[in-house]
Amino acid sequence: MKASITGNILEKQVQNLFLEKGFEIVMYSKWSKEKDRYGNELLLRHVPYESIYNHKGYTEFLLSSKKYNKQIRIECKWQQSPGSVDEKLPYLFLNATEKMTENEIMIIIDGKGWKKGAIPWLKAAVSSSNQSERINVLSLTEFLTWANKYF
User: Fold this and answer.
1) 23: which of 31, 72, 79, 82 is 20 to 30 A away, CA to CA?
2) Are 43 and 76 in contact (CB under 8 A)?
3) pLDDT tens, 4-30?
4) Which pLDDT score is estimated for 44?
5) How far apart are CA 47 and CA 76, in angstroms?
6) Sequence spans of domains, the chain
7) pLDDT tens column, 28-42
């Protein structure tokens, strides 16, 4: 339960940033049924994709901006205390490189509970892949800095 609450805090930070930047936040399932009802600057929540296991997976956000000509899938991973979330990073990496179709993917990864080599492994895996131009692995602070400069 605690991991869910702290993960939600990370997601709320992302949502608050884009609200301040003028983006509308909408559940993907609602938007997909009523696209004409919404504007062009959106942060869609709970966005589906087909995973490497050929079943429906979900990411926290898809930023869709006509003004900036961007579609950025945003994954949020928080690990406050030691646990098993870091063991899911290879799965996340494979989904990002093989199944997520957007031209840009942001993986926001933060917290002090990650195993010592987990985040460096993910960054090295992305860097050595042929997807390094479209996938960014950032801390929350790095992401906020990037978004404030870009938007």
Assistant:
1) 79
2) no
3) 445 588 999 999 999 999 999 999 999
4) 98
5) 12
6) 2-85+110-150
7) 999 999 999 999 999
